[in-house]
Design goal:
AB_hydrolase_1; AB_hydrolase_fold; 9 strands; Sec-Metab_Biosynth_Hydrolase; about 230 residues; hydrolase activity
Amino acid sequence: MAFVLIHGASFGADCWDELIPHLGAEALAVDLPGRGTRAEVDLGTVTLADCADAVREDVEAKDLRDVVLVGHSFAGVTIPRVLDLIPDRIRHVVLVSAVVPTDRSRVLDQIDPEVRGLVEQSIADGVYHQTREGAAAMLCNDMDEATATSTLDRLADDSAALLSETVDLSGYTREIPRTYVHLTRDQCYVEELQQRSIALLRPDVIDLDTGHMAMISAPEKLASVLNIIHG
């Protein structure tokens, strides 16, 4: 039994570095295309299907089964595609403040209209670039200065597909247990949006008193939740 960890937008697998030592089972942190071990991939070409294929490749390469699949933030639109690719390998899905828009919509469609224009201006040639200043405001509200600096040093450009491609959530119709970790101090995927995702998924819900990057700001707290789910 193992954990498979899928990062969100603007990060790579190293966002899980603080969490992994506290997990009670083997953990595989996947780099989605365009960063880390897959940095050679042109971000401008990456699709949501490519992201799901990367997870499948890593899971099959290690022949992992009975997996607890953990997705953070924008991994919420990758996970259902993974569930369609390797359903027999997944035992439980954990969504950590995960973005789950309405099926067949775009993530951009869920953003406040006043913010959407700014986000769209951050997209060029199929790449989404998040500024350090903007990320600090959204991601680091529960961190001390050193932890915030460490987090921001890991920022990476990302595929615009995460925001602009039509999502396919059919994988969530599969009878695989799921838990949503609701982050009560999240200033990135805010309360209203988390509740909207929860309403769509109807998962078990666990509250955690952290900001958006719980795996960095409170790794022991998040690990405790994951270890209980793992059993």
